[in-house]
Amino acid sequence: MIVMAKRSNSGKVQYGEPVGVVTAQSLGERSTQMVLRTFHQAGVSSEVISAGLPRLIEIVDARKRAKHALMTIRFDKGIAKDYERVKEIKQKLEEVSINTLINGFDENLKNGTMLLHFDKDAMSAHSITLRKVMEILSSRFPDIEVSNEGNEVTIRYKKRKDVRGVRTAFVHVRDEIVSGVEGIQKAVINSEGETFYIAVSGSNLKGVMDIEGVRPENIYTNDIFEVLSVFGIEAARNAIANEIAYVFDIEKASMNFKHIALLADTMTYSGTIKSVGRHGVAGDKESVFARAAYEETIKHFVNAGFFSETDRLRGVAENIIIGRQITVGTGKVKLMIKNEELERFKPEDGEKE
Predict the structure, then answer these.
(1) Confidence (pTM)
(2) Quick one: pLDDT at residue 46?
(3) Most buried of 2, 101, 294, 328, CB within 10 angstroms?
């Protein structure tokens, strides 16, 4: 119990400690030393991930989609040591479109036909048969007729007089996904000791979770908004904190995790993810002066005057602007004394005040 009490006390700060300002200084000082670069993800040689300052900006700006979305899929012990089972799951993950399986095509917009030349090696590599492809196209495109001869498939658009419709249909046919999970461009099997896991380029939590053998708790993605939509705000808060910590770890910059956690809490306390800038946390401040101090000064003052807003000067920025003592640290404490008690502090005769 004594050890637990000591740990609890070591995590506390003094009353009035400006933890927000200290966090901002701690994160800001280190982020200015970061490099503007990207690097290759281990195991996914053709893909790069954002690193350093670009990735940090992407997180705190709350970008809706990660520029380089990546997932890591791990497995329970029964599957993790079985390479063939992991390989089978990997084949179910990779998005395979018609464009992936063909080595060329010929279009005749006038006659409303398109000839697809399928690659035997590509079909074999993804364990897809020509019959399966034809069945998928026939079921998903009711306006086309499908026939084949050898490794060539002929697509005929029923309304061939509609040239624009023909062209649109043929583009959609070539882009149609026949296997795998939408959004997963590439999957690579990596080893870790005697176990195997899959590194994925792209992100689709819901699609991956539907695959047999994959458990939700064994999936990790760097796409924060996808974590929010699937697992909720608490998971998104943890994802933000983990991703920021990962950025600093790559840069070999020491950082107290409590500062990172405070930033993550600030971005998610409202129940959704807000950016740190004027369209998020800074723009939602109660104080007019605090909002105006960040960006778009004139706009905030004009709006405040138009809507008769009142600034109660409770925060740090607004008090600094008007030259008033800030309400943190010693400025957080106010002393009061009764008039009759002042008699005790009056100097006696002959003493200097």
Answers:
(1) 0.75
(2) 41
(3) 101
